[in-house]
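Exercise 7. Predict the joint structure of the components listed below.
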Amino acid sequence: MLISRAEAYAPASMANLGVGFDILGLALDSGGDTVCAEWSDTPGVTIASITGDDGRLPLDPTKNTAGIAALAVLRMADVDRGVSLRITKGLPLASGLGSSAASAVAGAVAVNALLGSPFQRSELLAACLEGEAAVSGYHADNVGPSLLGGILLITGVTPDSLFALPVPERLVFAIVTPGVAVPTAEARAVLPQTVSLKTMVHQTAYAARVVDALHTGAIRPLAAAMEADIVVEPARKHLMPRLDACRAAAKAAGAYGLVISGAGPTLAAICDDRAVADRVRVALMAVYDEAGLTCDARVASVHGRGAHVLSTQIEG
Amino acid sequence: MLISRAEAYAPASMANLGVGFDILGLALDSGGDTVCAEWSDTPGVTIASITGDDGRLPLDPTKNTAGIAALAVLRMADVDRGVSLRITKGLPLASGLGSSAASAVAGAVAVNALLGSPFQRSELLAACLEGEAAVSGYHADNVGPSLLGGILLITGVTPDSLFALPVPERLVFAIVTPGVAVPTAEARAVLPQTVSLKTMVHQTAYAARVVDALHTGAIRPLAAAMEADIVVEPARKHLMPRLDACRAAAKAAGAYGLVISGAGPTLAAICDDRAVADRVRVALMAVYDEAGLTCDARVASVHGRGAHVLSTQIEG
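Solution:
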C-alpha cells in the first residue's frame, strides 16, 4: 500500500508569554498552516504553490521552512524520490504566532505521512527545527508546541527537553495582531545581553510561579505571573504599537493580564471565560482602530492535539 | 486567663537548593530551635540564657535574632511589659540550615503565645524578618519555611508572596554539615553581579522545571533540575570543601542529586527513600572523615507544620 498524497495541519503557537521568555510555548486552536505533500518526478522537494501569504514567502524549497523541514524528513528516511508541496498559510507572517514554525511542522508531518509514517511525531522535532532555523533561529519554543500541542516547558532542543504542562480548563486568550511587522531578528537585537543577579532571581521566581499556577489552574495568578517579566517586555515595548493602551483596554474588559506573544507584535490577553475573551477581543480591536492601524483578532484556547494528518490518499 | 510562660519550636530550613536561589525554601523535620518566653520585671526583652551555641551567640537582645523578633512582636502588640527569653539551639550556626531564622521564628512565636496569640502565624513574618535581617539580610527564604512549614516559592517579603508548593511524599534528604563556617556575607560576595541573558533563560527554565517536578512528585527530575544551576554553585563551590567528592559519593549511594543548602557549607542529597538516604548520609560522612574534617549529618524530610507552640503555662 503506497500513499500518493498526504495533507497535514500544524497549529499556530505562542511563545515567551512574558516571563516565560525562550522557555514557554503553547499551541492555539485557532489558526494554522496546512501542507499537502505528493510524490513528484522532480528530485528533492519542490514547492508547487503557497496560498495565503500574499506572495511574500519563497518558493525556493531551501529557503522555505516547510521545504527545509520536508527535505530533512526525506533525508532522515533516506528516501531520494521527489516530493511536491502545496502550502496553505492560515496565519499572519512575522506576527509572533509561530507562522514559520507551523509551516515547518506541517511540512514535516505531511512528508512523514506520505512516507507511511516511519517516524513518531517527536522524532520529527529535529527536522522541524531545521526548517524553523532558516527564519527564526534554532529554537523549539514555537516548533515544539505546534508539533506536540498543549503548553510546553522548553529546556532545550531535543524531544526529552520538552515537558508538557497542565492546561487549565478555563484558560482562553484574546489575541490581536496589528498590521505592523516585527522581524524576530530585530526583536532579538533590542534585548539586553546581560541582566543583574537580582533581575535573574525575579525572573526565576515568576517563571516558577507560572508553572505553579498552571498546575493549580488559577488563571488570575497565572496572568499576573506572566506579566511580571521585567526583562523582555521593557526592552521590546517600543516595537509593539499601543501596548499600554491594549493592556488597559483588555483589563477593563475583563482580562487578567496581557503579554506579548513571541517576538510580537501580536498581543495575548489572558482570560478565564470565552464570552469575556470575546469582549476583550473587541476592545483590543477598538484600540488599534482608534490608532488608525489594521489588525487581525481572534479568541483561542490551547490546542491540546498539536500537528496531525488531515488526509492521506492511497496510490490507485 | 493570663499566660505566664510559652515555649515555641521553629524548624531548621534549607533555602536556594541549586537553581532555586533566593526563591525556594523548605522546612526540615530534623533540627530546630526552641525559645521559652516568660514575663520579666526588666523592661523590653532580656535573654536569660542560650544553650547549644558554645557561647557564640550574643545575649544582647538587640543583636540576637530571637531577641529582635521578640521585641518586634511586643511592639506590634503595643505591649510594654518586659519579657525574658531562654533559647535552646538545636542547629549548627552559620551552616546553611537557617539557624538564625529558626531562632527569630521561635522567638516571635513564643512571645505571640505569651501574649495570648493576638497574631496569626503569617502576621509574624515581618517580626521574624526583622530578626533575620540582623544576621542574614531581609529575606524570607529561611524565615518563611521555618514559620509556615512545607516547601515555599518566595517572590517577596510579605505573606502574600509566599506560595506553598506540593511536597512529594517520598522526598527525603541526606544532609551533611562539615565543620567549617561559611558566613552568609562572604557567600554573597562571591556571586556574580550580572549574568548573561542566556544564563537567565537557563535558570528560569530549570526553576520552572523544579516546580513542575514538585507538582508531579517525580524526585529524579526534581533533583536534576535543582542541580542544573549554572550561576550560584559555580561561584560558591570553592567555599564548600569536597563538594564534587560528596556529590559523587551521594550518587554512588543512591541519591539523585546534591545541592548546597542555603549559603552552605551544608550539602543536601536528594533521595526518594529513607533507607537510601541513610546510606547516603554515611557515604557523605566518610568523605569528610577521609578529608580530616568533622561533620554533622542527618536524614530529614520536609516539615509540613512549621513553627508551633510547644507549651504554655497559665499564671497561677
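Discussion. The first helix of chain B runs from residue 65 to 76.
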